[in-house]
Design a protein that fits this description.
about 450 residues, alpha/beta, Rossmann fold, 2 domains, 5-stranded mixed beta sheet, 11 helices
């Protein structure tokens, strides 16, 4: 199998559609070759790429991969102070956006290192995920296999390029000679929907927020005959939303895939097509091709029986090399050896489908009780209350965008057997999230601390 960044065999296939242009694989290769000229003089030297969903970002990304230059993908709108933190910590040779900046650099990188992704969205935390060529190549191949991506497929971008989920959409289409419709418009923009119709998009990807917007936009009334499938990841979809979109996609003859992953896994680990298993809506499915999942209890024993919770451990060639906190970590080789301790607590049912119940670090032990904070979130969501619980072993704090009345507060206390003195409530305008739609728990904790 050829690496997805070497795509000469597809030649006259359309690789990229933009709002007013289309670019064949042959033309894309020529542009990448041109971009390589500067980079190939400094192989294995670090590249920072400020990227968005445009042809320039795609070309620079592929040029870095072809010249063996590890590339850190950064939001094009990254705050200058945050950018300075990354530059100070990692000392890159190149900074690419619309121009090329060259720095003096003594950063040494592993020859296997290909892509660096931030673990913190658009914040300035310099911790990075180190991905090898094997990681991104094999995950792209696995995704293309289970989604049956072929040369006739056309995916429209709906997520940021620097976000692992958005990046995986691009990689998994390039690997099979399919097309990507590049746009920075969002799904709430009329232009985005015009592009779907103009270029006959066959798929798009979404996080939970995407599906909230689709419902508000009355997606059920839209006529999109070219659409073959929709994928969902980037956080758990509520059971009600999952059922709604499964039934809707069945009526529209669209395949609906629910998937699970982490940036640390390049990013995809599991999937399933809800059309085939509508009774498994709250599941994350089964391992992707080439991957394997096991659960371990607190004593590190493997769990062999259904419906028993344990930490989800993933095995596969898409597991990252490890983390980086500064430039010295970039010369490290593979620290994890294809094994990822996800930190997620899960169980499997009697048909082998996995279900996430919470995070290992989202449990508190309060008043002698082990409380799953994610379970509180889900309980409130079923009562149509948009809320997030945070806490420690002394108190639990619930931030909500709805009013939680005294009756509901008493229900929570009774359900979780808590004393009223350990529970705090606060109404906020919106739940803070990063650019990828992940909840910022630390910000919620800070809001509560400021109220004390």
């Amino acid at each position: 199998m050829n690496n997805f960044w070497n795509f000469e065999k597809f030649k006259e296939n359309i690789a990229i559609f933009t709002e007013d242009d289309k670019i064949t694989y042959s033309e894309l290769s020529k542009r990448v070759n041109q971009a390589e000229i500067v980079l190939k003089k400094n192989p294995y030297e670090l590249v920072f790429l400020k990227c968005k969903n445009d042809i320039n970002s795609i070309v620079n990304y592929l040029a870095a991969l072809r010249t063996n230059c590890p590339v850190l993908l950064l939001d094009d709108d990254i705050d200058e102070e945050h950018l300075k933190i990354f530059i100070k910590n990692y000392n890159p040779r190149f900074l690419l956006d619309n121009n090329t900046s060259i720095f003096d650099s003594n950063t040494i990188c592993s020859n296997n290192l290909a892509v660096l992704l931030s673990t913190s969205g658009s914040t300035g935390n310099p911790k990075l995920v180190r991905l090898s060529r094997t990681n991104i190549q094999n995950n792209a191949a696995a995704i293309a296999e289970y989604l049956s991506i072929n040369q006739n497929d056309r995916a429209i971008t709906s997520l940021p390029f620097h976000y692992s989920y958005g990046l995986s959409v691009i990689n998994s289409h390039l690997i099979n000679g399919a097309s990507v419709i590049l746009t920075n418009e969002s799904i709430i923009s009329k232009k985005w929907w015009d592009l779907i119709k103009k270029y006959k998009a066959t798929s798009f990807a979404g996080v939970p927020y995407t599906f909230d917007m689709l419902k508000k936009l009355r997606f059920e009334n839209m006529d999109l005959p070219s659409l073959r499938y929709i994928t969902q990841a980037g956080g758990k979809l509520s059971e009600d939303q999952g059922k709604y979109f499964t039934e809707l996609c069945q009526r529209k003859n669209i395949d609906f895939f629910i998937m699970y992953g982490q940036t640390e896994a390049s990013p995809r680990m599991t999937y399933f097509k809800t059309n085939d298993f509508p009774n498994k809506i709250s599941s994350i499915g089964k391992a992707i091709p080439g991957g394997k999942i096991s659960l371990f209890d607190d004593k590190k024993n493997i769990i062999k029986d259904a419906f028993i919770e344990g930490e989800l451990i993933y095995y596969g060639s898409n597991v990252m090399m490890g983390y980086a906190n500064n430039k010295n970590d970039l010369k490290r080789e593979d620290d994890l050896k294809n094994i990822l301790h996800t930190g997620d607590i899960a169980f499997f049912d009697d048909e082998g489908f996995f279900f996430i119940t919470g995070r290992k670090n989202r449990f508190t032990k309060i008043q002698g009780l082990r409380i799953n904070l994610d379970d509180i979130n889900q309980f409130l969501l079923k009562q149509n209350i948009n809320a997030v619980a945070v806490g420690n072993d002394l108190q639990i704090c619930i931030a909500s965008t709805n009013t939680i009345d005294e009756k509901m507060k008493k229900r929570i206390l009774k359900k979780y057997k808590l004393h009223h003195s350990v529970l705090r409530f606060l109404q906020i305008d919106e739940i803070p999230k990063n650019s990828s739609g992940k909840i910022l728990y630390k910000k919620i904790e800070d809001i509560f601390n400021d109220q004390q």
